[in-house]
Amino acid sequence: MSSASFYPPSASTQPSERTYPTTDKLVGKWYITHTTSPAWKDKRNVVLTYTALPSASNTVRPQLDDLITYQTLGSQKLQTMRGTDTPSPFHLGSWTWRGNGWLKFVTSQWEIVAHEGGPTDGEDDRWMVVFAQKSIFTPAVLNIYTNGKIGLEDGRLDELRMALKGLGNEELGGLADGLYRVTQE
Asked: How far from chain centre, in Å, is Cα 69?
């Protein structure tokens, strides 16, 4: 994990010289392979697809269309949830998700707290850890997104947990202990 970057949530520290994946590195398909969210306990094949939306200015980071597809454990039917992610003007790694359609009134603040993978890394080697703050509808959660369906190997996952706990943020450390694997077929 030598090329991985780890950061405590921005609410607990001022983001200084941090580097985050650029929007073009976020665009595409990500598998949610590990999470602490109770919402995914009875789900499988949870996939997040980011698509950049047209920007009014080339100096503003674009919003992202956020499509989540999944299946319940006992069904073949593909379910979807869609929203729009708006980048924070104050913190490069933070975003606000707002649901579309009947979820339009639902928002969530999320940020990248760890990531690995760059322009020379293989697509299946890229991953990021996303911390979503507690909202009216959900507890605070950690999600691990990977570009490969298999996700992180157990040893690498243990290293990641230790690194997250080592950031000195109690909430993040507690969430790291609660990560469970999401079934990907």
From this structure: 14
Dist. CA 1–CA 163, nearest whole Å: 9
The answer to whether residue 57 scores a pLDDT higher than 80 is no
Counting beta carbons within 10 angstroms of the beta carbon of residue 74, is it exposed (0 to 12), middle (13 to 18) or buried (19 or more)? exposed
pLDDT tens sequence across 9-18: 765 555 555 6
Looking at this protein, which amino acid is placed at residue 130?
V
Residue with tokens 């924070």: 88
As a whole number of Å, the CA-based R_g of the chain is 16
Instruction: Strands of 91-135 (E only): list them.
Output: 94-99, 107-116, 127-132
Under DSSP, the state recorded for 5 is E
Calculate the CA 162 to chain-centre distance: 18
Go through 151-177 and write b for each residue having 16 or more CB atoms within 10 A of its CB, e for each that does not.
bbeeeebeebbebbbebebebbbebbe
What stretches of the chain show up as alpha helix (H) in DSSP?
23-26, 154-165, 170-177
Say what the pTM is.
0.88
Q: Which amino acid is at 86?
A: T
pLDDT > 60? residue 56: yes
Q: In terms of C-beta density within 10 A (0-12 exposed, 13-18 middle, 19 or more buried), how is residue 148 classed?
A: middle
Q: What are phi and psi of 32, to 5 degrees?
A: -85, 105
